[in-house]
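C-alpha cells
________________
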Amino acid sequence: MPNLLAKGRLARWSGVAGASLVTLTTMAGTVLAAAAEHAPNAAAGGEHASGGLPQLNPANFPTQIFWLALTFGVLYYLMSKKALPRVAEVLEARQERISRDLAKAAQLKEQAEAILAQVEKSLAGARSEAQTLISQASADIEANNHARQSTLNADIAERLKTAEASIAAAKDEALANIRTASTEIVRDITGRLAGVEVEPAQADAAVAAVLEERRG
C-alpha cells in the first residue's frame, strides 16, 4: 500500500513537472515571438540595435530555444529520475514507519487491555476470597463468643448454685447454733426464775416451736 501511494505521488509530481516545462516553454516562445515582432525596428536602429540585449536578437532565438528546451529537459530528467524518486522513497519509508508505529501501538493497546482485564479478574477474585474469609472469621468469632457465653453462663450458674448451697448450709448452721444457744438460755432462765430444772429436750422443743412460729 505505501508503494502504491509513493508511485502515485511520483506520477503526479512528474505530471506537474512536465506541465511546468510545457508552460515555461510556451511562455518562452511567446516572449521570443514578441521580441521577433520588434526585430525590424531593432534592425532599423543600426548601431543602437546591435548594442541592445543579445537575448532579444532574432539571430540568437534558435540557439536560445535549443538551450531552453535542453535545460528544462535535463531538469525534468533530474527531477523525475533522481529527486522525485528520492522524495518518494523518503515518503515511503516514513509511511512504513508510521504504519509500524500504529501496528505496535495497537498491539500494545491490546496487551494493556488484556493485562487490565487480568488485573480486574484478580481483584474480583481477591475481593471474593476476602469476603469469604471475613464471613468465615465472623462465623468463627460468633461461634466462639456463643461457646464462651454458654461456658460463662454455666460457670455462673454453678457458682450461684454453690453459693446458694453455702448460704443454705451457713443458714442452717446459724439456726442450729441459735437453737442450741436459745435452748441453753431457756434452761438457764427457767432454772433461775422458777427454780425448775428443764430437760434439754423440752427446752429444745419449746425453742423449735417458737422458731417455727416466727418462720411461718
Notes: The CA atoms of residues 5 and 92 lie 8 Å apart. The mean pLDDT is 76.
